[in-house]
Amino acid sequence: MRVTPDVLAEAGGRIRAVLDGVFGPLAVVGTAFATRRRSCRAAGDELTPDRLSGLREIIWRQLGELPAADGAGIVAAPGVVAGLDRHLEWWQRTGSGEGGPGTYARIRLNLDPESIDLYDYLEMDWFTVPRREGRRYVYGPYIDFSGADRYVLTTTVPVLDDGEFIGVAGADIRMSHLEPELLAILRPVPLPAVLVTAERRVVAANTARWIAGTRVPRLPDVADREFSAVTEVGADSGWRLAAAVTPA
Amino acid sequence: MTDGRHAVSLISPLAAAGRADEVVQRVSQAIQLGLFVDGEQLPPETDFAAQLGVSAMTLREALATLREQGLVETRRGRTGGTFVRRPVSPPVGALRDRLRTMTTSALRDLADEQFAVSGAAAKLAAARASSVSVRRLVMLADQLAAATSLASRIRADSRFHIEVAIASQSERLTRLEVSLQTQLAELLWLPPDELVSETRLADAPVHGRGAAGLPDPAAAAAEHRAIVSAIAAENGDQARLLAERHVERNLRRLTALRLAMSSDLGTR
Which fold has domain B16-84? Predict the structure, then answer.
């Protein structure tokens, strides 16, 4: 039995749409960040943490658009905010109240460069890849103990001001919320299908042949006898969706 | 024989036994993991309670416990508030007293749990670790080798083991490892009593120091590096074996340290 590449490509397209649905609100936050930076520069003012914090209501609104997100915000490049090496304006859902006060709380991380406990995002892939390659990035799934205390994907978009990289806008997407969406897309595929990251990690599968969070020995490829069709998901995810040759 | 009454004691307490306990655990873990800067002010009680999703009363109860544990302090007045207290240098006297109250079989039991958790985490990490996790593990092993203070040794050591659990992709194993590190890491790096260090340990050959109870960061860092190598090589059985041996050696050292204590105040 073979699955037509069309069926798989269509499922891949729906997964891409899920990811684009995450990136959309991030682009809104990123644009607000760049606009704030530009208007500060035009007025000859320094972009202070205080001035950046004026964007929090935009971040809250976008979090409202992203029920799967645990948190979202802005992570600045060195020197962009008041000459600070590191600064972030990141908000997390608190689990209390929907839309009311206390719905979101600002995350506190250790950004003291002298501390052994420094949360050094300048070294983290979700920051370095958008900076270096000027593209969106999907990191994970992984256990984010320092931020979200959950199994998440971190999604980021680069933010540019007149071509200068000034940071990223990002969100932590909870796998507990994303997995049902992915399974709804994978279930109708009539053959065993697996969604893997570029790091060979299983994001989701429609059969117990592959277990989420584990890694497959090789990236699925049509040259492999095991798979009848493979499609790139796109949306800068590096994800691949593959359908096996034989039923489960 | 197990009769009904005894069997009841084997049932673990419910995780949600008390919301306040849960808050205490989460906040002390955050401090343990270094998410708070020493001296950092916690948010106002109403905000913090909302952030954690608990009532103000539950939060106050939790803060009282944290205060008793010396992890936060509350100052009154205009510049008042609740502040994180992570002493630069851990209270060696208090830690010695804690170790003194533990029996060697209690230490062994604690190590048994770590044996299960760390061994499984290492095995799973070898199959699942991301390249980012492997890089972090190498960095943390180097940090331990270079650490000179008691506090920095505790941090680098416990962070390493927590990162192995994170690399395993298991939230549950990660929580267990954090809780184990909270109980074990500080004791592990205690310098021995003066009595011991002056007499028996001074004569101990370098390779015998670990067994005699003297903390040996270079040896521990070498063991950590070997575990990372096995994880990076995706050799799960080897990673598990090395992690288990590491726990066994730590237990031997802790037991030696405990036995070398000048007095037995175990029942105090």
Answer: Arc Repressor Mutant, subunit A (1.10.10)
| B28 close contact with A: CB closer than 8 A | no
Q: What is the ipTM of this complex?
A: 0.81
Cβ–Cβ under 8 Å, residues B174 and B242? no
Instruction: Identify the contact set of chain A against chain B, taking CB-CB distances under 8 A.
Output: 92, 94-97, 101-102, 105, 108-110, 112, 115-117, 119, 124-125, 141-143, 145-146, 149-151, 199, 201, 213-215
User: Which segments of B88-130 does DSSP mark as H helices, in order?
Assistant: 92-100, 104-128
CA-CA distances (angstroms) from residue A172 to A17, A226, B42, B92, B236?
17, 33, 23, 39, 30
Beta carbons of A115 and B37 less than 8 Å apart:
yes
DSSP state of A243: E
Query: Structural domain boundaries of chain A?
Result: 47-174
Chain B CB contacts of A203 below 8 Å: none
Q: Find where tokens 């941090």 sit.
A: B155
- State pTM to two decimals: 0.82
Cβ neighbours, 10 Å, residue A162: 9
Looking at domain B92-259, which CATH architecture does it have?
A: Up-down Bundle (1.20)
pLDDT tens digit at each of 268 positions of chain B: 445 555 555 555 444 447 888 888 778 767 766 667 777 888 888 878 877 778 889 999 999 988 888 889 888 887 788 888 876 677 788 788 889 988 888 999 999 999 999 999 999 999 999 999 999 999 999 999 999 888 889 889 999 999 999 999 999 999 899 888 888 888 899 887 654 444 444 444 444 454 456 788 999 999 999 999 999 999 999 999 999 999 999 999 999 888 888 665 544 4
Distance CA B86, CA B105 (A): 30
Question: Which fold, A47-174?
Answer: Beta-Lactamase (3.30.450)
How far CA A59 is from CA of A31, A64, A121, A126, in Å, comes to: 11, 9, 20, 19
- Encoding tokens for residue B226? 């070997």
